[in-house]
Amino acid sequence: VPPIIVAVDALGGDQAPRAIVSGAIQAVRREDIGVTLVGPADEVRAELDRHGSVRQLPITIADASDVVGMDEPPLAALRRKPRASVKIAAELVSRHEAHAVFSAGHTGATFMAAHAAFGVLAGVERPGLAVTIPTRTGTAVLIDAGANLECRAEHLVQFGIMGAAYARVALRRASPNVGLLSIGEEAGKGNDLIREAHAGLVRAPVTFVGNLEARDLFSGRADVVVCDGFTGNVALKVGEGLAETIEQLLREELSASAVARLGALLARQAFQRLRRRVDDAEYGGAPLLGVGAVTIVAHGRSSARAVENGIVMAARLVRERVVERLGAALMAR
Amino acid sequence: VPPIIVAVDALGGDQAPRAIVSGAIQAVRREDIGVTLVGPADEVRAELDRHGSVRQLPITIADASDVVGMDEPPLAALRRKPRASVKIAAELVSRHEAHAVFSAGHTGATFMAAHAAFGVLAGVERPGLAVTIPTRTGTAVLIDAGANLECRAEHLVQFGIMGAAYARVALRRASPNVGLLSIGEEAGKGNDLIREAHAGLVRAPVTFVGNLEARDLFSGRADVVVCDGFTGNVALKVGEGLAETIEQLLREELSASAVARLGALLARQAFQRLRRRVDDAEYGGAPLLGVGAVTIVAHGRSSARAVENGIVMAARLVRERVVERLGAALMAR
């Protein structure tokens, strides 16, 4: 069988193209996959050459001269820039020259480029961004992490079905528990959107465990946490911000007391290990579920190692036929 | 001057009436205030008598035989139970027999009882729950913490004005910075509600610093964080849940490594101190801003010490004329 090829947006992200090219090289050295780097051919070639003898590696270049900036309105930018790297990358997939897209660039632009190039699965109105989060007992999937800021109840139900199908592959749970993020566990708790989505999820072909309070987000009670993109983004970023604040306050506390200082070094090492454990779960990127091909959105500040992991993740999701599984799950309604 | 009298719902909360009565005794011993305990007279009297010679303290009892359960729909429950403790407590204020209400019972019921008894200030469509949260640099006020699950932009603007007036008293900031919780700092980021509220806050008589990302919630960039009650509740509970999870994971990390174990005891002591620093900010309860009299809503699991702090807080807000200040701030639009 020919290897899986991932189309990689070489211009997306704060450290592009350097971190992207390095990550791509590491990915093809690590696994039997191919990468097409999409960006200005000369610039990408020069980056590749910095790494020495990489001409034998399964890496090709697709020329793309433009990029969607992080502060541009994505729809207008994509219309104005037909040679934008993320657009060319998505079109490689629609022309069957690649199997998946990876981008650490503008999330909205990736979303729109993917949508335009290979559409959405039958039964999907809104693709959702699925982020893996750490829990006390392992990991869980939160969907939507910010792709859709205005949602109707039907969208949340579709997120639940897609999230469960994805969790079977990504978390290897045979029958993942699906929870609906709300302000209380009782079915009646929440706003109109939540009450209507609750009723829809009860009838959906998933293992629905009901409403989930935000304090249970990290408890492991649900394998799939369903929410609208605004709430999901706030929840994830509160988590990030608090982890940083606790780390800093803990550092201050540890240096404040002469007695505690004795344990400071060891405790900080422990906290660093903990941070890595938490960060590892997010590593690589988040799949956009519901579009017609595997599409991985990565953090703008992705390092070469994060890019490597994201590309490997994209190939794995192609190999495990996650798009076909999502399609089947949606048909089962 | 006669002392300020706080009407205390003796039946509200997981540990009622015991923790409520103990907290009230501690409060009147600590400050020159009076308390009216609202609950079944016999039961409250028996609790008071457990504490020995308290007959000289400025504590009276107002008989109320019923309570709104935590899982009851509050509007229906208040209609069915004219002798509900929180209702009687609010009515003491409207009859000028008390200056403020404190309840650790059903938040929605307290909200509705207060609204029915003494209404809302001119210019207020929705009262908002203001919670004090810890930040890197001190504390901030988040409004609304969960009283209004469906909000329009105008409600968020009113929360900003009330939150700023409250922060001047509670945080002692002359010109508090007001931020709008969203998914990005740029004015255009967010959903329709946020964009419209942003425009309204720009025109409002507050020091508006623009949108605030959720990761900046604890950074101290804003003294007043404005959001709808659904988002506010999720943000606060994600914070609580993550703090608990980090504490537990840290404990596991510290006991996992033989080397780290050496510092475990000291580090845990530091973390406990940190937790107290974080918890202290929330201690006592949250004022419901926009109703016609000081109304403090406390956590259902409030201890006697939390009740004591909440009652003292209620008296302080009466003394500092916070309701009048809110009214003036709303008139200044």
Protein architecture, described:
- The structure is a homodimer of 333-residue chains.
- By secondary structure, the first copy, chain A, is α/β, with parallel strands linked by helices.
- Chain A is 48% helix and 17% strand.
- In chain A, helix 6 (153-170) packs across helix 11.
- Chain A is globular.
- The model of chain A has no long low-confidence stretch (mean pLDDT 90).
- Chains A and B meet through helix 8 and helix 9 of A and helix 8 and helix 9 of B.
Largest sheet of chain A: 11 strands, mixed
Mean pLDDT of chain A: 90
Order of helices and strands of chain A: EHEHEHHEHEEHEHEEHHEEHH
Give the uncertain stretches of chain A in residue-range form.
Answer: none
Radius of gyration of chain A: 21 Å
Q: What class, by secondary structure content of chain A?
A: alpha/beta
Give the proportion of residues in helices of chain A.
40-55%
Q: What's the shape of chain A? A: globular
Quaternary structure type = homodimer
Largest interface: A-B, 59 and 59 residues
Task: Estimate what percentage of residues of chain A fall within beta strands.
Answer: 15-25%
